[in-house]
Design goal:
Order of helices and strands: HHHHHHHHHHH
Helix content: 55-70%
Oligomer: single chain
Distance between the termini: 113 Å
Number of strands: 0
Number of helices: 11
Number of domains: 2
Amino acid sequence: MGTALASTALVSNSTVRLSPGWNALYFWGVWTICILGIGVVLWAALRSKRWARWTTQDILVVAALGVLLEVYDHIIGDQLISPLINPIPGADFSQIHDLPYLFLLMVGVALVRKPGCVTAMVFVNFLLAQLLFGSGHGALDWTDGLTRGIFCDLYIVARGGRVFGRGASVRSMVLDGFMIGVLRGGPNAFLTAWTFDPYLNATYTTWLAIWQATWSNGLFNGIEAAVSAVLAHRVAVSVVPSLGATRRKSAATADPFAEPEPADGHAPIPGSTVPGSTVPGSALKTTNTTEEAWHEAAHAGLRRDLGAAAHRRAVHGARQLPPR
């Protein structure tokens, strides 16, 4: 037993150091996966009938939230929030500083609700970071930004338009938020330690550190996104109220004060108590025979000898008939 534990500890603390050839293979393999994922997301956004096409409003929302993500990520978060909470035991490990970031990301998802929204917001954030703070490898570093969003968008595609869809329950929003958070944090943490850093920066990590970074980023980002999901939906509905509409008006929600449609399909006459009566202002009681109906209608000013034509004109309100 002790030998097994010692062997496990030895493997966990050993550094993952692959050959340059394998590092290159994994690195460009990730690029291939990202490009294929972008192709799938673009097809879903532009060709699939399950989603409406992107609008100017969607583009503006993505751009604005991408800027806000950058402002929080590298300015407010790194310079203000993280120094305050990192001294708290376990705060850095549980990724508490990512909570506002995940909330802003979920607001964007709730507003746009289309494939590509997560990758677009995260990539805007990443490009701004490169422009403001520099990058040692230029476009080669883009995989770091792409792997934070492309897997989330592939999940949105797989869900077929049900992520924050109309009529979505609180449970479904929480589960969708959890999955988006896991896919945002977990794969990127693993790939950064496994291939990005070794290939680009010649930085190597132990097996234990890779495992801890992967599950902690995935789990806690998922929890933070799940917690933010319902509030993000409310914010989205307050910005665009139509997003809160769950269904069209049905017969069950019809106006209880609306007058019923008569059997003959004509609109009822105000003040009339005769079924299907079209006599203006009539207060006649219900009759059972055509003869009685004409007899009582005569008192209201309708001449019987004008026949059906006069009756039709009265139905449509074309003109007032002369009294008898």
